[in-house]
Write a structure and sequence with these properties.
- The structure holds two protein chains of two kinds.
- Chain A contains no helices and 13 strands.
- Chain A is mainly beta.
- In chain A, strands 2, 4, 5, 9, 12 and 13 form a six-stranded mixed sheet that branches. Chain A has a five-stranded antiparallel sheet with strand order 1-3-8-7-6, with no helix packed on it. A two-stranded antiparallel ribbon of chain A has the order 10-11.
- Chain A starts with a strand and ends with a strand.
- Chain B is mostly beta strands.
- Chain B contains no helices and eleven strands.
- In chain B, the strands form two sheets. In chain B, strands 2, 4, 5, 6, 9, 10 and 11 form a seven-stranded mixed sheet that branches. In chain B, strands 1-3-8-7 form a four-stranded antiparallel sheet, with no helix packed on it.
- In chain B, a hairpin with a 2-residue loop joins strand 5 and strand 6.
- The chains are: A mainly beta, B mainly beta.
- The interface between A and B is medium-sized, with 33 and 32 residues.
């Protein structure tokens, strides 16, 4: 099955600096790579995702890059703010198609990165 | 919409006791999932369901059971609680994308979790 490795496990930055979190995956069939942010006491929430037909996607201060050849993808947060402090999870999505033709998959998550942004 | 609602928020069980973690969603999502989250381990898939009456095992199903009698509800049952089941449990739901072989699910919508301690 799919295996996703995420680094670093903890990341501490000063407000205004950039933060980068990296993930590698093992299953070359994976073609969907979401990133989730989890605040204390809450469930994970999708912040950005990328599909394998693009190499980069940006949404304001957040960007994700994908290198399918090397099987790695990264989350970039620029101009970090204290409210960016949270646990971030990457995930990979191997596609499965059943006999009825419906496509679905099961996310495999990385181990998580605790990001702390100091004011 | 309330989204995905999990109850209870916290529970302490003695070894050998049983309990049901409740999960309901009001977004008319076909797919529902149960994940467990352990420190430094990310989220591991326990069971999932692609529709009412259909369930399947995920990565770590041992010691758990599920049922899906309605689209809205997906309860998780622990029959004989063990200390290894101490964890935070998250329920999630999503739409499928039908009829496209390279499609993937809509983003997962998570509940706020149930923190379970078995002593």
């Amino acid at each position: 099955g799919e295996n996703v490795e995420q680094h670093p496990s903890t990341l501490s930055v000063q407000e205004g600096d950039s933060a980068v979190i990296k993930c590698t995956y093992s299953d070359s069939a994976s073609n969907y790579f979401p990133w989730y942010k989890q605040e204390l006491g809450k469930g994970p929430q999708l912040i950005i995702d990328i599909r394998s037909n693009v190499g980069e996607k940006k949404d304001q201060r957040i960007a994700v890059t994908l290198n399918k050849t090397a099987k790695h993808f990264s989350l970039h947060i620029t101009e970090t703010q204290p409210e960016d402090s949270a646990v971030y999870f990457c995930a990979a999505h191997p596609i499965t198609t059943n006999a009825g033709g419906t496509s679905y998959g099961k996310l495999t998550f990385g181990q998580g990165t605790i990001l702390t942004v100091h004011p | 919409n309330a989204g995905v609602t999990q109850t209870p928020k916290f529970r302490i069980l003695k070894i050998g006791q049983s309990m049901t973690l409740q999960c309901t969603q009001d977004m008319n999502h076909n797919y529902m999932y149960w994940y467990r989250q352990d420190p430094g381990m990310g989220l591991k898939l326990i069971y999932y369901s692609v529709g009412a009456g259909i369930t399947d095992k995920g990565e770590v199903p041992n010691g758990y059971n599920v049922s899906r009698s309605t689209t809205e509800d997906f309860p998780l049952r622990l029959e004989l609680a063990a200390p290894s089941q101490t964890s935070v449990y998250f329920c999630a739901s999503s739409y499928p994308n039908r009829g496209r072989s390279n499609a993937s699910n809509s983003p997962l919508h998570f509940g706020n979790g149930t923190r379970l301690t078995v002593t």
